[in-house]
Amino acid sequence: MTGATVGVDLDARAYELDRAHVFHSWSAQGSLDPMVLSGGRGCRVWDHAGREYLDFASQMVNVNIGHQHPVVTAAIAEQAARLTTIGPAVANLQRGEAAQRITAHAPEGMNKVFFTNGGADANENAMRMARLHTGRDKVLSAYRSYHGNTGAAVVATGDWRRMPNEYARGHVHYFGPYLYRSEFWAETPEQESERALRHLERVVQAEGPQTIAAILVESVPGTAGILVPPPGYLAGVRAIADRYGIVLILDEVMCGFGRTGRWFAFDGYDVTPDLITFAKGVNSGYVPVGGIVISDEIAATFDDRVFPGGLTYSGHPLAAASIVAALDVMAEEGIVDNAERIGRTVIGPALDKLAAEHPIVGEVRGEGVFWAIELVADRTTREPVDAATIARVKAGLAARGVLVFGADNRIHFVPPCVVTEAEVAEAVAALSDVLADTLEIR
Ligand SMILES: Cc1ncc(COP(=O)(O)O)c(C=O)c1O
Hints:
Layout: H1 3-21, E1 39-41, E2 44-46, E3 52-55, H2 58-61, H3 70-82, H4 93-103, E4 110-116, H5 119-134, E5 138-142, H6 151-156, E6 171-174, H7 189-207, E7 212-218, H8 233-243, E8 247-251, E9 275-278, E10 290-295, H9 296-301, H10 317-332, H11 335-357, E11 361-367, E12 370-378, E13 383-384, H12 387-399, E14 402-403, E15 405-407, E16 410-413, H13 421-441
Parallel strand pairs: 3-14, 5-6, 5-7, 7-8, 8-9
Antiparallel strand pairs: 1-2, 2-3, 4-10, 9-10, 11-12, 12-13, 12-16, 15-16
Helix pairs in contact: 3-10, 4-10, 7-8, 11-13, 12-13
The chain binds pyridoxal-5'-phosphate.
């Protein structure tokens, strides 16, 4: 038997086992048809039979350093040989090094890290800290947001995933800026920013500022559409939080650690949060982990008072070792700079050209390696294409060997930060072919 034949058998076995025994996220299980993947390197992944794909989804928009970076996999293996697990109450060198590496990228006055298992529980615990710190109850967050799948995080989420799960209390939603589909009849980014801020402040006033513990915001909303904030917006949110004594939590789970071409997405704006939540890009998902970077003021609240929260795997040594190695290679190899440069000089111009050539593209927006392509049935009315069209585009791309992230009427073009110019050209050419085919079918 050839290697390819063995591979085909392994792919079939993986598929069969999955369909028999694995229950998937956010899905009706009966109609699922998952792709089998077994290996990867850099921006590419492949199945057992050797069929290769360019991973322009970075899986869940988390594999920022690319797949299987050898320095990071070696650091995990080394840590596994030394000590695979240890309780959260002890001091452990790798945990401390990981916390120090993370706070080194945070603003001054943010010196402590609480580690969680992922992004949702980072937000869950950040909201808890804000509530205990302020003695207030409510949390404000945007309708266009995703904050994770735990009790409060999913209710802080704005999108459809909140509605079947609304058991937590004290959550209020507002509209953030999104000029292309403005809720505020705005025609310029400046108008959108000003009016979205006025709306947010009116929500704060109408809810009663003395009842509001936190405003939770994705610095750049990701799954909701890669909505790069207009000028002055995040600084304006900070000013509103300050005016009413509200804690500002910036959710950097998807947009942090290189995705926007900056270490933290908020580095591009004139804003300092009180709490930063992170996960995904901090170690590119090599081991599950998330956490909160905490301001000195909020950390001090818990100097003499118990923080009523914890996890068996808070600061797990394999996760900690992977964070240290991932952040070190990101710095040493200029990976964040690559994301910034390739976004500005290659991806942005290539997607603008694509938009000019294909009337189905309503808008392209993004920065770094964080781009959304909004597909519309009509450019004048901006009517979104339907889910079937997005499914066809995704399938067409996969058939041409390119994986992307699909959300609502959008294709998210979100490769690892290490992506090269040639890989971008390959993915854009495939997308151009698929969009031309899609228009023909419609
Ligand atoms: C902005 C944001 N916050 C939180 C989460 C939840 O992270 P996790 O899936 O690691 O719990 C996500 C996941 O996509 C996210 O994009």
